[in-house]
Amino acid sequence: MKPPLLLIGQGSHDDAYAAEFGRFVHRLRCRLDRTAVDVSGGYLERATPGLSDSVASLVARGHHRLVALPLSLSRTSDDLGAAMEREQQRHPTLMYDYGRPLGPDPRVLSLLAERLTEAAADLSKPRALEPAGARPRLRAVDTPVDEDLHVEPGETGIVLVGEGSTDPAANAEIHRVSRLFWETHAYDFMTVETAFVSVTPPGVPGGLERCRRLGARRVIVVPYLLFAGGMLERVWAQALAYGAGHPDLDIRCAEVIGDCEPLADVVIERYEEALQLVH
After folding, report:
1. H/E segment holding residue 114
2. CA 255 to chain centre
3. E-assigned strands of the chain?
4. Could you tell me if residue 48 is inside a domain?
5. Is residue 143 located within the same domain as residue 246?
6. How many structural domains are present in the chain?
7. Which segment of 57-71, 88-102, 118-132, 170-184 scores lowest on mean pLDDT?
8. Measured on CA atoms in the order 19, 32, 45, 53, is the torsion positive or negative?
9. Alpha-carbon span 125 to 78, nearest angstrom
10. Is 142 left (phi over 0), alpha (psi -120 to 50) or beta?
11. 189: CB partners within 8 A, 6+ apart
């Protein structure tokens, strides 16, 4: 029997993120059920089920070796290693192997390109907050758009937005992703600038301003994020605030990568890769 796959999320108080994380875990469970692989998901903090509960459940079902895969686009944090060491102390028979983070896999870059295309084709622009569910959430709201306005890709800038970190290497990785994305999927565009949601500059307004000064007539903000939630809302809110002061600049915001089959393909490949390294 193959070892189970444990998908590990950082954790968030945001219900939208938790719901999409849960749907993705279910997708993987359905995909790998064909090969009798158990799939579970747990969070490092701020959400349930916690990592400790998920590991305990797997051990209770008779699993003593697992593949732990951080469901993250960035580098693995030290918190994950410390958390898994604590689980090994709680369950002395437990052994685990890590799967590589998803990172700038070519299929992830292709998904970003799809979200870019969708945003470029959408004539609605994010210009207001409207209620969505239990609390206000930024949504793309229809606004008057000059349908005769023709903007070439060479007049369009892209701002790729990562989360931001206190780790310089993690921030440098986002810059690397921006360059890879430009050269592989967005070379016809004016530029691909890098921005961060928080912690480190430049923020989303800084990326937008950079594009404006380069002469862009349109800018598409592309979040380098897996799932919707509070982080995405902060990206959109920063873009909205900047756009309010620059009405002549056409700003559009793409969606996150989201729960989808191509992302599941990447995760399954990481899982199989981890198994091969064991043998």
Report:
1. helix 106-121
2. 10
3. 5-9, 39-43, 65-70, 95-98, 125-132, 135-141, 156-162, 191-196, 218-223, 250-253
4. yes
5. yes
6. 2
7. 118-132
8. positive
9. 39
10. beta
11. 153, 154, 156, 157, 158, 182
Q: Who contacts 194 (Cβ-Cβ below 8 Å, separation ≥6)?
A: 159, 160, 161, 162, 174, 175, 178, 202, 207
What is the structure's pLDDT at 133? 43
Q: Are residues 142 and 14 in the same domain?
A: no
Give the integer Cα–Cα distance in Å for 173 and 265.
22
Task: Look up the CATH number of the domain holding residue 155.
Answer: 3.40.50.1400
pLDDT of residue 139: 42
Domain end point (choices 59, 76, 101): 101
DSSP 8-state code for residue 50: B
Please, what is the average pLDDT of the chain?
87
Residue 196 near residue 202 (C-beta atoms within 8 A):
yes
| pTM, two decimal places | 0.87
Which residue segment(s) compose the domain that 95 sits in?
5-101
> How far is 95 from 213, CA to CA, in rounded Å?
53
For the CA atoms of the chain, what is the radius of gyration?
A: 20
Average pLDDT over residues 178-199: 96
Residue 115 has pLDDT above 50, yes or no: yes
More confident call, 50 vs 27: 27
In sequence order, which residues have a C-beta less than 8 Å from that of residue 49 and are 6 or more positions away?
41, 42, 43, 57
List pLDDT tens digits, range 257-277: 999 999 999 999 999 999 887
Q: What is the DSSP letter of 45?
A: S
Please determine, for residue 121, whether its predicted confidence score (pLDDT) is greater than 60. yes
